Amino acid sequence: MNLKIKYLYVFCICFLIAAQNGYSQTSKKDLLKLEVSKNHHYFVTENGKPFFWLGDTAWLTFGRLDREGVVKYFQNRKEKGFNVVQVMVLHTLNVTNVYGDMALVNEDVSQPLTTPGNDFNNPEEYDYWDHVDYILDVAQQNGIYVGMVPVWGTNVAKGDKVSKEQAQKYAQFLANRYKNRTNIIWLNGGDTHGNEFMDIWNTIGSTLKTTNPNQLVTFHPFGRTDSSEDYHKASWLDFNMFQSGHRRYDQDTLPNSFKEDNYKFVHRDFDLKPTKPTLDGEPSYEGIPQGLHDTLQPLWKDNDVRRYGYWSVFAGAAGYTYGHNAVMQMFRKGDNPAYGNKVFWYDAIDAPGAGQMVYIKKLMLEFPYFDRVPDQSLVANSGEKYNYLAATRGKDYALIYTYNGKKIEVNMGKINGKKVKACWYNPRNGKKTKIGTFDNKGVHEFLPIGQNVDGNDWVLILTSK
């Protein structure tokens, strides 16, 4: 037999055997390791290329999705440009996945329930953690990093469910099991107050980081709070994450709250020392009631998630996490809905906002990435609340976002060149409309296309000529 034909024959036989054993679905080269950029404001892959975090919130994936659903979900998110998915490892201490596998022995985080082997067709072998492994493999196949919350904050906040010793053993289990994974990011905490049970959160964070220094770690905090408030200088915290929350301006009565102005979190974090990236890890979800708990309130829409995205990224954030009410809880037929949800997850993955998020990612990667800084001095008429105009620039470009089609008055001369070219960028579809060429001096007014109404959002792009 010809030697080349022989090798081809052997390869085909091996491939068929692997496929029969289920390996063809999960074998794929590791994703590039994520790192913090040299200027410490953004993320890069290990080869130095920009990584714009475009996240989705899919908290209950490990418990509620079967294998078919996992493949459908991650393929959809890949097609829409997402590169990070945020999930809970343990939503509750008695969590059971769709196959009936419990995660823990006696609801004790220090005793993960594992079995020898991982044969999906053998229930005595296949366990909760094998299903997590499968999901991580599918995510990796689709080029997606998984932001994993070890244990949701409410389980710790109960006070007697998780001790420091149990937390250390559990974190060590996670660190050992996933130390060779390159597509894991750890989100310590989980919708919880950072100044409570700090010994436990510090134990989890330091255990994960010490064991696996190449995996990024942050803290996912309670609504309208930020990891930087309690853990900015913690040695285990690589980047900051804040939750801008789900309330309207008029619904938030908390003192000193940034309310809907999520860009204020970024402005504050951007100037902290040591310098660390920051991003909005949970803004208002598309399809969730404004204020969260009153289901009779209007729902947040696609224009709202766009606004939070552009506001925070133009303020200097390293990315942005989108969310949808149905997808974050992976709502299925027969589930008890949270927050008034009435849409199934497999329909909601194609909601308008989900398809529009990719355009902010594409815009940011179109220009030189690492010299980008927030610069409100570009705008002569910045405004407040929904009239706020968010501005960012590099050396040869400037971007200004209006949420409602408000006129933009630009202080020219902030970027290089005697002349600048101007165009409008549509956040709903990524299309550009040319405006013209202008002298790069003085103040120039630009009037967006369409009416001055909330949701008629545009990005003014200025480039050096």
From TrEMBL:
Residues in Putative collagen-binding domain copies: 373-462
InterPro entries in the record: Apiosidase-like_cat_dom, Collagen-bd_put, GH
Any one Pfam family match given in the protein's UniProt record, by short name: Collagen_bind_2
Domain Apiosidase-like catalytic: 37-370
Taxonomic superkingdom: Bacteria
Name of the protein: DUF4038 domain-containing protein
Naturally occurring in which organism (per UniProt): Flavobacterium cellulosilyticum
